[in-house]
Amino acid sequence: MERGVKMLKCFIVILGIYLLIMTVLSLAKKRMTEQFCLVWGFLSCVMILFGILLNPSELHRYISERGILLIMIAVIVVVYGAWFISTQVSILMRKNQELAMQISLLNQENEQIMKRVQMLEQEKLDTEQKGKDS
After folding, report:
1. How does 105-124 read in b/e, with b if 16+ C-beta sit within 10 Å?
2. What is the reported pLDDT for 1?
3. In sequence order, what are the residues at sequence separation of 6 or more whose Cβ sits closer than 8 angstroms to the Cβ of residue 11?
4. How do residues 90-111 score in pLDDT, each as one tens digit?
5. pLDDT digits 0-9 by tens, 65-90
6. Closest residue by Cα to residue 12 from 48, 38, 40, 45
7. What number of other Cβ atoms are within 10 A of residue 36's Cβ?
8. Structural domain boundaries, residue 116
9. Sign, Cα dihedral of 40, 46, 47, 52
10. How many domains does the chain have?
11. Using CA of residue 72, residue 74, residue 80, residue 83, what is the dihedral sign?
């Protein structure tokens, strides 16, 4: 087997294992939402399987070892960018959900205060009405 093919297969398997570990850690630390972790976990498992099972033949005919190295660097940059975006979107989704819950609680508290104010105003009107009647 060509050295470049071995290098590519090892790279895909190692990247898949790394992504799987980072996905589990991100889920444990709640840095990423479950949906994103599920997608990243599936992607990493597929990468591991592809790296183990696929055997590209004649790859060295089309791409040199330096070309494979450049492709690996590009893949790392793209995966890092996608990971960063996934993490940031997850953080924003969690913050948005937390703010929605806080607004809901504030609205409920506001309703209770408004009811209390209406009750007090009604009591005040009733006492004024009684005072005028007497």
Report:
1. eeeeeeeeeeeeeeeeeeee
2. 56
3. 51, 72, 75
4. 999 999 999 999 999 999 999 9
5. 888 889 999 999 999 999 999 999 99
6. 48
7. 20
8. 1-131
9. positive
10. 1
11. negative
- Contact in structure between 16 and 45 (CB atoms under 8 Å): yes
Q: Which helix (H) or strand (E) segment is 114 a member of?
A: helix 65-133
Cα–Cα distance, 101 to 128 (Å, whole number): 41
Could you identify the residue written with the tokens 């570990």? 21
* Cβ neighbours of 37 (radius 10 Å): 21
Token pair, residue 74, equals 């590009």
Question: How many other β-carbons are positioned within 10 Å of the β-carbon of residue 59?
Answer: 16
Burial class (CB in 10 A: 0-12, 13-18, 19+), 101: exposed
Q: Is the pTM for the entire model greater than 0.85?
A: no
Percent of the chain topping pLDDT 90: 71
Compute CA distances 14 → 72, 76, 92, whole Å: 12, 12, 30
| Nearest CA-CA partner of 75 in 1, 28, 7, 2 | 7
> Higher confidence at residue 127 or residue 16?
16
